[in-house]
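BACKBONE GEOMETRY TOKENS
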Amino acid sequence: MKLTLYIFIFFYCLNLKAQESSSGLEKNIFNIEIGAVGFWLNNELKLSDEIALRTEIGLYTEIVKGIGFFMAPEITFEPRWYYNIKKRVFKKLDTRNNSANFLTIRTNFRSSIFEISNYDQNRAENSIAFIPKWGIRRNITKSFNYELGAGIGFLSVINQKYSTLSDSDGIVVDAHIRLSYTF
């Protein structure tokens, strides 16, 4: 009888350990990020063991050659599939703050509601983009991490006022390098 009880306890403890390490995704994380083309506040909400929904609000920056620069608001929704998170947990690698490789479809709305600029005329356009992307996120310290990503997708400008290369409808390349602080 004791042997059966010990075996039951052993397998029960193994099952608990397996459940704890089955996913390295955090339930809910908040970040402040700065990148080459702006800064953002975002939240990642765990939906399953490998999928998180990232919502983001920020200011993107665009430099117009010979004219100057402008910053305008953007909102982003992107479901992220952290496809190697379980592998990283199994290998006992750092998975804090959702540190893993991911695939996503970035849905991004940029607005001309207001603009910060160094010249008189407004240049911001309303646009929406759908961009499949691959990315990687790794921790530097407990709260600081970096993120790299790239993808090719489609951008559509709504009521276009200006004719610039980066604001025309069609195929768009999106690459990012960001440094973030996680609360």
